[in-house]
Every structure is written in C-alpha cells, then in structure tokens.
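Summary of Year 1 activities. Much of the first year was spent building the evaluation harness for sequence design. The harness presents a backbone, in tokenized form, and records the residue chosen at every position. We chose the following record to illustrate the format because it has been used consistently in internal testing since the harness was completed.
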C-alpha cells in the first residue's frame, strides 16, 4: 500500500540523517531539511484524505509504473544496439542524401562564422581544394559577391575614364584636365581614409557609391576651373566667389539627400548614405583646399 511505502521511505531518510549526524557530516543538514519537507507533505496528505488524495496518488503510481517495464526493456536493448544500415533510414530522409545514381551527398560545415568575406573565402578555398565542383549556399554567396565586386570595379574604372575624356573635351588642355583630376583623386583618398577612421567597410551595397562620387564631385572642379580661366583673379578668390558658393551649396543639397538614407534601419541603405555623404565631404574639402593650391602653382603659366 502507498502509505506503507511512504512510511518506509521516511524511516530510511531518518536513519540516513541520524547516521550523518553521528558521523558529523555536513550533509546531515540537507537530509534534515528533506525530512522536514517530507513530514510537511505527509501532514498535507493527511488533511486531504477526504478529497481522495491517496486515490489520486495510487492512480499516479499505477500510470507511472505501468510503462516502467517496457521502458526498462527499451533501455536494456539500447545498451547493445545493432548497427544502423542504409535500409533502416526512412525513404524521405534517404532521398535527400542519396542521388539517383547512388552517389551520396556530403555536407560540410565551416568551423568559423562565414558572414565576413575573409572566412568565407578561406572556407571556399579549402572546399575547392578537395572538390573544385562543390556547390551550395556559401559558394553562391561568394560567387555573387565576387561578380558584384568586379562589376563595380569595372564601373569605377569606366567612370574614371569617362571623366578624363570629359575633362579633356571641356578644357581642351591636358594640363588643366590633370589639374581637375588631382583634387578628385585626393578626395577619393580622403573618403577611403574617413571610412577606415569611422569603421565603415565596403560591402555589396555601398560599393555602388564609388562611381557616383566621381561623377557628382567632378562638376565642382569643372565650374571652379572654368571660372579661374575666364577671369583674372586668384584661385582663392574663385573659391570665395559666387561660383564657389554655388558649388558649396550644391554639394550640401546632395549630402542632405544621400545623408537622409542614414536614418534607415537597414544596414545596407545606411552604409550607402554614410559613404556617399563622406565622399561628398571629402571631395568638397579637396576642391576647396587642394584645387586652389594646385591652380596657384601651375595656373598662372597656363592662362
């Protein structure tokens, strides 16, 4: 009967407590606390007699013990498991890993996180050293990033070449075309340095900004150089003239337009606004500071 089982269990705990106290073991306090909890449970059980608490416990015991032999048998069988063969694998799972020709699918997981280009490139290189035809999501991501990067680099090169041609046609002078390119190149270098300073990396979203920075920023140099060539004034006076003010205000409007993208929660959109704004600031500083210095050095001889 269940009460007898409980009573025997309590007596065993009490004997254990006395033994621990005689041996002066620190676990005696734990046994005493458990015994107090057990006594409180028995007292509560005694109060619940009229509510068939013992009957509920017997039902619980019967339900728990009913499946116990089966579980013990299962545990014994698991101690000596048989080898799993391909025939034991369900068909739904097998068709995912075994091809129609009988070849097996081998899935490889990277040791490191491959969200950055460096670890991703190393992982792809290691996999391809074993199987050059390996495929999967990391391979597709890497190839997509490589194609986009190469495309934007070509676009940057084409934009630079187009700007050189436009400067040559506009100024009809190789020297003045070179003068217009100097602050543009310096501005791009300032932009890249600013990105490093603020911890902004190029990614598949913001790399598109590079050709845009060249195309939008070069017109500042064209306006300032044309004003310098047409009027008999110093390079510093050109920067402070109405042309210089107009160029400055135009740059501010462009910065405000692209800078608004930085309020976006999407990191790609944010980086486009950040890089574009930084590029416009860098190029504007270069055209205001570097261009007058270059014109002062070589401009008088070319007028």
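For this record, the design step produced the sequence shown next.
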């Amino acid at each position: 009967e269940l009460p007898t089982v409980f009573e025997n269990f309590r007596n065993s705990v009490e004997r254990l407590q006395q033994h621990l106290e005689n041996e002066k073991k620190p676990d005696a306090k734990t046994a005493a606390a458990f015994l107090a909890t057990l006594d409180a449970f028995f007292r509560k059980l005694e109060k619940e007699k009229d509510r068939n608490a013992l009957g509920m416990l017997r039902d619980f015991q019967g339900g728990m013990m009913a499946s116990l032999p089966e579980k013990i048998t299962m545990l014994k069988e698991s101690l000596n498991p048989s080898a799993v063969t391909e025939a034991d694998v369900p068909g739904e799972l097998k068709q995912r890993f075994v091809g129609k020709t009988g070849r097996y699918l081998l899935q490889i997981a990277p040791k490191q996180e491959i969200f950055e280009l460096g670890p991703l490139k190393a992982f792809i290189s290691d996999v391809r050293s074993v199987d050059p035809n390996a495929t999967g999501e990391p391979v597709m991501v890497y190839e997509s990033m490589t194609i986009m990067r190469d495309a934007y680099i070509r676009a940057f090169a084409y934009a630079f070449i187009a700007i050189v041609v436009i400067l040559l046609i506009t100024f009809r002078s190789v020297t003045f075309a070179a003068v217009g390119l100097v602050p543009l190149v310096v501005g791009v270098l300032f932009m890249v340095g600013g990105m490093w300073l603020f911890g902004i990396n190029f990614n598949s979203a913001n790399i598109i900004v590079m050709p845009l920075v060249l195309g939008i920023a070069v017109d500042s140099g064209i306006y300032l150089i044309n004003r310098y060539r047409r009027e008999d004034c110093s390079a510093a006076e050109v920067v402070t003239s109405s042309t210089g003010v107009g160029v400055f205000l135009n740059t501010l409007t462009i910065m405000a337009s692209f800078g608004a993208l930085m309020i976006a929660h999407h990191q790609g959109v944010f980086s486009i606004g950040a890089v574009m704004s930084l590029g416009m600031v860098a190029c504007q500083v270069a055209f205001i500071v570097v261009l007058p210095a270059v014109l002062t050095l070589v401009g008088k001889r070319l007028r």
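Residues 267-302 form the longest helix (36 residues). Quantitative recovery figures across the full test set are reported in Table 2.
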